[in-house]
Write a structure and sequence with these properties.
The chain has 264 residues and is mainly α. Helices cover 77% and strands 3% of the residues.
Length: 264
């Protein structure tokens, strides 16, 4: 299973480099079901893996000038604040056992995985409809769109803090639709935001768990190889064409997690 997990880790990086998002949403299922890591700890590991791989992936976009640092701050600052508050205060408040219905118990781990599965289904919907999801909105003023971007940045931060996903599937449409950022710049800027969010989220919670650094660094290293591959492939293949296919895969994974955690 670990060999399959390492192969999947390459795919996480490839998708991040190729389409700027979506790869991080595979990280927690890979860690939980292939590496047999506790769900709560997997969200922490995911932040490190996604943060490191996104940082490496953003370097080529920075060199080409496909990163808007000002927008990174507009979107990123509320995300960072939300992640810190979520990892530091909100997660510890969730009890180990939330609901018990006869013999069925929804534990903290199951709760986080169900949130994650819901996020995967939402991400798959946006990816499958990728061709229509980047229509530029003209009716709102620039100020209103900026405020909406700040609000979405806050939401991305909360979700990233809870489940360890980078949120690229939400960030890129917001950058394109609300802030009128060109697609390639949106991907590069998204990678910067994801890397900041993930690494700060990991730092905020790393003192609360025992970390297997050898395993974590090995997975991150393989994901980095994947993102380098994905970045190279992005020069030859348009990521937008692959998004619907990747979206269907994520949809199947989301349904599988819900079925496994509730019915099996």
């Amino acid at each position: 299973m670990e060999i399959i997990g390492y192969i999947a880790s390459v795919l996480i990086g490839v998708s991040l480099g190729l389409i700027g998002g979506g790869g991080s949403i595979l990280t927690v299922p890979v860690l939980v079901y292939l590496f047999r890591i506790d769900a709560l700890l997997a969200t922490e590991y995911s932040l490190f893996i996604v943060g490191i791989s996104s940082t490496v992936g953003s370097l080529s976009y920075l060199k080409k000038g496909w990163v808007d640092l000002k927008i990174s701050l507009v979107f990123g600052i509320p995300s960072i604040i939300s992640i810190f508050l979520t990892r530091t205060y909100l997660l510890p408040l969730i009890p180990d056992e939330l609901i018990q219905i006869q013999s069925f118990i929804i534990t903290k781990n199951i709760f986080l995985l169900l949130i994650f599965a819901g996020l995967m289904i939402l991400a798959s919907y946006k990816m499958i409809r990728s061709r229509t999801s980047v229509e530029v909105l003209e009716r709102r003023s620039a100020k209103e769109n900026t405020l909406l971007a700040v609000g979405e940045g806050t939401l991305v931060g909360i979700l990233t803090g809870l489940v360890g996903a980078g949120g690229g599937f939400m960030i890129i449409p917001a950058l394109v639709n609300l802030l009128k950022v060109p697609m390639k710049t949106a991907i590069g800027t998204s990678l910067i935001i994801i890397s900041l969010n993930s690494l700060i989220g990991f730092t905020a919670s790393m003192n609360h768990a025992e970390i297997d650094w050898k395993l974590l660094i090995s997975i991150a290293f393989i994901a980095v190889i994947g993102i380098i591959m994905g970045t190279q492939l992005s020069r030859k293949i348009k990521g937008e064409k692959l998004k619907p296919v990747f979206g269907w895969f994520i949809l199947i994974m989301g349904v599988y997690i819900i079925t496994r955690e509730i019915f099996l």
